[in-house]
User: What shape does this take?
Amino acid sequence: MREFRYERPADAASSVALLAAAPAGAFLGGGTNLVDLMKLGVATPDVLVDVRELTSREVTDSPDGGLRIGAGVPNADLAAEPRVRERFPVLSQALLAGASGQLRNRATTGGNLLQRTRCGYFTDVTRPCNKRTPGSGCGALEGVHRNHAILGQTLEGPGTCVATHPSDMAVAMVALDAVVRVLGPDGERTIPITDLHRLPGDDPSRDTTLRHGELITAIDLPALAMPSRYRKVRDRASFAFALVSVAAALKVEDGVVRDVRLALGGVAHKPWRATAAEQALRGQPATEESFAAAADAELAAATPLRDNAWKVPMARNVVVRTLLDLGEATR
Ligand SMILES: Cc1cc2nc3c(=O)[nH]c(=O)nc-3n(C[C@H](O)[C@H](O)[C@H](O)COP(=O)(O)OP(=O)(O)OC[C@H]3O[C@@H](n4cnc5c(N)ncnc54)[C@H](O)[C@@H]3O)c2cc1C
Ligand code: SF4
Assistant: This one.
């Protein structure tokens, strides 16, 4: 057994100071991902700084009609929060599509954003994996990769990684233009959520742009003035990560798309904001043909692997179906 120290500081500033002094330490939220990875020997922190009780568990209104979500808000509470259900249904639906009731009770908003990939080579310490052990290779590239990425992968060199980001909640937050508030050794800063998660580039070991010791304290959601929804395709109805998912919001006036937000899950190393599709759709008729053309514009960049080319038409179909549903809702 590998020993580690457990700390439960009184406040956020003390937790940041503790971790700054522990280069191999980690924050602990609900522990539903980190503790599993510790049991598997994938994560080996020497200090665990428990932040579940000291980050805010409140959801508060912001002056612009948006919401501030404390990093300690449990996933179940956030999904059930009436203001989220009413103003940001895409977020509530994404949360309810993830994990199980018990896990959602325990898991925190901050921890959910930072959960790690479910690539089977990453979680098996006997296999090569550039994310877990830089320079060891990527077992998935020529191995089992049915549920891996089709966009933005690194396909050669020491940075090779074709993993996907697992969080449903993060996909919805990316579509909602959320802003992540962090407290670090150098003070507070904000990060647009689209800049939080990384593509593998030449260093797949780094999932995010956070620096060591930066604590997520809250997430800000700006007001949203259009209907939204989340659709997730998975191998079974519960307890399964996305094969492909779509978070969308759509504003249609006089049959024309006035505004649209679109993000995809299960397709890349980070929640994928579909900016090419959004650009292709604005000002176009809200028809199945336009929705399909927009999806094609986004997926033109796809570089599927040997066994996951089916994700390209699946993503296209899920985008089209979701936008059609939203288009009907706004009519
Ligand atoms: C069987 C199973 C099925 C699942 N299915 C799904 C699914 O379908 N969809 C889905 O989205 N998720 C799914 N999950 C994942 C689940 O949502 C995550 O495990 C959970 O959200 C992680 O939150 P946590 O608070 O427990 O994080 P932890 O495990 O405590 O932490 C995760 C990471 O976040 C860091 N961290 C935690 N809090 C902070 C903070 N405030 N600031 C900075 N760093 C922090 C930790 O250091 C760690 O690196 C599943 C999990 C299991 C076990
Ligand atoms: S896809 Fe990424 S996480 Fe999976 S084995 Fe390759 S390097 Fe590791």
In short: DSSP finds twelve helices and twelve strands in the chain. The CA atoms of residues 129 and 169 lie 26 Å apart. Residues 5-47 form one domain.
